[in-house]
Design a protein that fits this description.
about 300 residues, alpha/beta, TIM Barrel, 8 helices, globular
Amino acid sequence: MEGGHKRLLFTHILLSVIFLCHGKDLFFSDNGNLALPESYNIPWMAGIEDFRTLSLLTIPGTHDSMAFYGGPEVECQALPLKDQLRAGIRFLDLKVFALFDTLYVMHGVMYERSTFKEVLDTVRTFLAEFQSEAVLIRVKPLSFEQDTANHMVQSLIGNDQNVWVSSGMPNMGQVRGKIVFLQKNTFTIGIPLLETNGNGKTKIKNVADKDNTIIKQLNEATEFCGGDNAVLTYTSGHGFGALWGIFQTPKRVAERVDPWLNDYLRQFYPNHPRPCFGIIAMDFPGIDLIQTVRNLNKW
């Protein structure tokens, strides 16, 4: 009988551990292998009416979308780009560096083993398969090479009719199957972009304070939704440069923030209509967090 109790206790503990680990992965995930349920709705934008203005949507995105390499201080994502798109990500955040005739994707001084052209090719392949979708791209060139980066991006897109480069705010019907560029400061192609954290800094002193900061940013985003600008909130953060900051890597911060963010956004599900939060750019988001963000568009 005693052996039976021990086996039962062991089974209970094992199941609890499996559940807890799986639960964490639903909202935060540093797993680079995408495993979508059979019923997963990849082309979620198909459910958005054509007349909906793009600035009235809540869009899941990734911060430093290609930051896979360089160590804990640099790494912000785990899923390859093609899998981010299949998981539902519709905003990409790209830092680029021009050298000769090529734009390289960077994070700080780290080359992230991809060119901007390769990113465009991946996005175009995805949109050719899922023509109901649109993918928003923010390009952040080094400030001293603004003109170079703008000319190189323009050269890469050419006269492609499946790229939105106008500063006018489109509706969903106008951008299906298209790449939509966003402009700010050193990049001047596409829809004007507002950031809710002002100067774009993500350094934090205490992870516990990040929640309130995000709430303030999302409240600000709601005020600007529906206007002539795309609105962007970064939920990412790191502590480098502060005391004990070495322990607050982007992954550590996301591990704490992502499940909280999921719970915070879920409270708005009973609302009719649900609030608009614009673009929410995250580090290491799990598939359930991505679904939580995109399902805010169910009016």
